[in-house]
Amino acid sequence: MEKKIERRGLGRGLSALMADVNLDHSHGQAGVVASADLLVPIERLIANPDQPRRHFDAAALQELAESIRQKGVIQPLIVRPTGDVGVYEIVAGERRWRASQIAQLHEVPVLVRQFSDTEVLEVAIIENVQRADLSPLEEALAYRQLMDRFGHTQEKIAEALSRSRSHIANTLRLLTLPQEIQNMIAAGTLTAGHARALISVPDSVALAAKIVGKGLSVRATEDLVRRSTVSPASRRRASGSGEKDADTKAIEADLAAGLGMPVSIAHEAGGDRGRLTITYYSLDDLDLLCRVLSSVSRDMRS
């Protein structure tokens, strides 16, 4: 028998929409179908035409279908009514719907929600990011949509999705890479770690081809990028500046070991001034450096 449909206000924030996506996690135990509003025949459900995910891995669907054959659909789909009586549009759970068809189920459990067109897309993006194995570029595009279309900040997205702020920022930076490199990431020939090392690097496409051709590790890629971005003038200055004394080298080594980042000290000859250069290769490194400096600053004030 149809239960009363819960109606909620529109225009909610990201956290409220996340509550809807996570609603079925608060019910039941493994192997038990969570409390649903309705059991709806599969043919009375239609896919969301604006579904952000365009590719559904066939092997993963078969694996999910086998699980559904054994245990049923544990997590209800989230749907909204359409203009046709008894027909619902899938808001979240299209993979379960597709796998249920493979498993030859006749009906699936659903939670009925009243969503606007905007919220339908927003929830679909949230569900994909939270539950599906997105490629790094798909994840980046999802974050970009949440920011551009719905006005969410990186901080709000990080908080709602339980990700670090630096993870969101690093993932978004992949979208600044040339299309050729993005195609390598999509094809799986280049990892996100390799690609991040190439951001803002001149002739990055040629370097990416070299990395793929030689099968370089991420660390080797960072070394290659570091060598390729040192200008000839910098090399000449370095070569003409004289050999660093043992004490300076020891200080550089100690600092580098403590930070896990390259450190260079350039002390002006005959004076007390100089430059301390710390090189970072990701926003995670920068976050770590900021925390270390903030901690030192607090200790000095206390």
UniProtKB/TrEMBL annotation:
MF GO annotations: DNA binding
UniProt-listed InterPro entries: Chromosome_partition/occlusion, HTH_ParB/Spo0J, ParB/RepB/Spo0J, ParB/Sulfiredoxin_sf, ParB_dimer_C, ParB_N
CDD domains for the chain: SPO0J_N
SMART domains: ParB
Keywords on record: Chromosome partition, DNA-binding
Pfam families attached to this UniProt entry: HTH_ParB, ParB_C, ParB_N
GO cellular component annotations of the record: chromosome
Ranges for region Disordered: 227-247
Domain ParB-like N-terminal: 38-129
Any one Gene Ontology BP term: chromosome segregation
Family the UniProt entry places it in: Belongs to the ParB family.
Matches recorded under PANTHER family: CHROMOSOME-PARTITIONING PROTEIN PARB-RELATED
Primary role: Involved in chromosome partition. Localize to both poles of the predivisional cell following completion of DNA replication. Binds to the DNA origin of replication.
Protein name: ParB/RepB/Spo0J family partition protein
Lineage summary: Bacteria, Pseudomonadati, Pseudomonadota, Alphaproteobacteria, Rhodobacterales
